[in-house]
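Private note to self, pasted from the team thread so I don't lose it. C-alpha cells:
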C-alpha cells in the first residue's frame, strides 16, 4: 500500500512511521511542514526507507500531487499544544481546519482512503468526581482554541463522508506519552526539567485528570482502524490510563530519585479541562484491538530512559521552550 502520512515528523506520526516501516511497509511518504514541533531527526532511524517531503498541508497543489500517488492517507498533521493555541490561535485555524479541508478535497478528487487522527478534547471535559467516560455519541463541546479547531476538522471529515462519499474514518484518542514527544508537553517537560536541574512545574493544584496511553498503542489502534474500520465511523482510542497530574508528577520524581515535593506550582491554564476519560469498547469489541503497554509506571520508566539517552534530540529545544513558559508565568 502506498501510504501518505501527514505530520509524520511529529511525535505520534514519527512513531507511526517507525512502526509501519518496522513491519515491512516499503512505500511511505511523509508530508510535514517541519514546524517547531516537527523534526527530521525523529525520522533518522528510517531515513533510507521513506520519502520525506517538506511542505504544508494547506498547499493544495502539493497535497493534490502526493494524494494522487497514494492509496491511503493517515492525517496526523496539526498544531497540537493547548497553551500555544491560547497565546495565538491563528496557526491552529490554518493548519487544523484549512489543512484538513485541503486533504479532504484531494482525497475526494482521487478517491483515496483517509484516516483522520483526532483527539478526545473535542468532547470538552468531565467532572473530576464520577465514572462517566467519553463515547462515540458524546456531544462535541470543545473548550480551547486547539480543541475547537480539531472539532471543526472532525466535522468537515464527517460532512465529506456524507456529502461526497469520501472513504474516511476518524479516531479520537486520549493523552499520549512515549519517545520523541516535544518537551513543551507535560511528561517530557517534567523529565527534562529534572535532567537539566530545573524544578518541574505543575499547573494549579494538579487535580486535573488525563487518560494516558502509550504512543505505540495509539498507533496500533490507528493501523487496526485503517485496515478493518468501518468507513464513516468514529472510534475512540484509550487504554484506561486515568491519572491526576500531581500523581503523574510524583511518579516521575520517584522514578528519577527526587523528593516527591521537589516541584513548583505555577499559574493554571486558562479554561483548563478538568478530566478526560475514554470508553474504547467499540474498538475493543468490534475490532478486537487491545493495548500492550498496560503498566503505566513501566512505560514512564522507559520514557525517562529514552530522554536520558537522547539528550541530543531534545536539548536544542529546551531553553526556548522554558523561556516561553517563563514569560507566561508557567
Ligand atoms: P506534534 O505537535 O508532535 O506534531 C505535529 C506535526 O505536524 C509536526 O511534525 C508538524 O511539523 C506538523 N505540522 C503542523 N502543521 C502542519 C502543516 N500546516 N502542514 C504540514 N505539517 C504540519 O503532534 P502530535 O502530538 O504528534 O499529534 C499528532 C496528531 O494526533 C494531531 O492531529 C493531534 O491533534 C492528535 N492527537 C494527539 C494526542 C497527543 O496526546 N499528543 C492525542 C490525541 C490526538
Ligand atoms: O487529550 C489529548 C490531547 O492531549 C491532545 O489532543 C493534545 O494535542 C496534547 O497536547 C494533550 O493535551 P493536554 O493539554 O492534555 O496535554 P499537556 O501535555 O499540555 O498537559 C497535560 C496536563 O498537564 C494538563 O492538565 C496540563 C498539565 N500541565 C502541562 C504542562 C505543560 C502541567 O501541569 N504542567 C505543565 O508544565
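Design output:
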Amino acid at each position: 500500500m502506498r501510504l501518505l502520512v501527514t505530520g509524520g515528523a511529529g511525535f505520534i506520526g514519527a512513531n507511526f512511521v517507525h512502526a509501519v516501516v518496522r513491519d515491512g511497509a516499503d512505500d511511505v511518504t511523509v508530508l510535514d511542514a517541519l514546524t517547531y514541533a516537527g523534526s527530521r531527526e525523529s525520522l533518522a532511524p528510517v531515513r533510507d526507507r521513506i520519502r520525506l517531503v517538506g511542505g504544508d498541508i494547506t498547499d493544495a497543489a502539493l497535497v493534490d500531487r502526493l494524494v494522487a500517488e497514494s492509496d491511503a492517507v493517515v492525517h496526523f498533521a496539526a498544531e497540537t499544544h493547548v497553551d500555544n493555541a491560547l497565546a495565538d490561535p491563528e496557526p491552529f485555524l490554518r493548519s487544523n481546519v484549512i489543512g484538513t479541508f485541503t486533504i479532504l478535497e484531494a482525497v475526494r478528487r482521487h478517491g483515496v482512503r483517509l484516516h483522520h487522527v483526532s483527539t478526545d478534547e473535542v468532547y470538552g471535559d468531565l467532572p473530576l468526581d464520577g465514572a462517566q467516560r467519553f463515547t462515540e455519541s458524546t456531544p462535541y463541546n470543545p473548550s480551547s482554541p486547539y480543541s475547537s479547531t480539531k472539532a471543526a476538522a472532525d466535522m468537515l471529515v464527517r460532512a465529506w463522508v456524507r456529502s461526497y462519499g469520501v472513504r474516511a474514518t476518524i479516531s479520537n484518542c486520549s493523552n499520549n506519552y512515549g519517545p520523541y514527544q516535544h518537551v513543551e508537553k507535560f511528561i517530557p517537560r517534567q523529565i527534562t526539567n529534572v535532567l537539566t536541574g530545573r524544578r518541574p512545574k505543575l499547573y494549579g493544584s494538579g487535580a486535573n485528570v488525563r487518560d494516558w496511553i502509550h504512543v505505540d498503542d495509539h498507533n496500533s489502534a490507528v493501523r487496526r482502524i485503517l485496515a478493518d474500520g468501518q468507513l464513516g465511523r468514529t472510534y475512540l482510542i484509550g487504554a484506561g490510563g486515568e491519572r491526576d497530574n500531581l500523581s503523574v508528577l510524583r511518579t516521575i520524581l520517584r522514578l528519577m530519585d527526587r523528593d516527591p515535593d521537589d516541584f513548583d506550582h505555577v499559574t493554571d491554564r486558562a479554561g483548563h479541562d478538568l478530566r478526560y476519560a475514554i470508553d474504547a469498547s467499540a474498538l475493543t469489541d468490534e475490532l478486537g484491538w487491545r493495548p500492550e503497554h498496560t503498566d503505566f509506571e513501566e512505560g514512564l520508566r522507559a520514557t525517562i530512559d529514552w530522554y536520558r539517552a537522547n539528550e541530543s534530540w531534545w536539548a536544542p529545544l529546551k531553553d526556548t521552550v522554558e523561556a516561553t513558559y517563563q514569560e507566561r508565568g508557567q
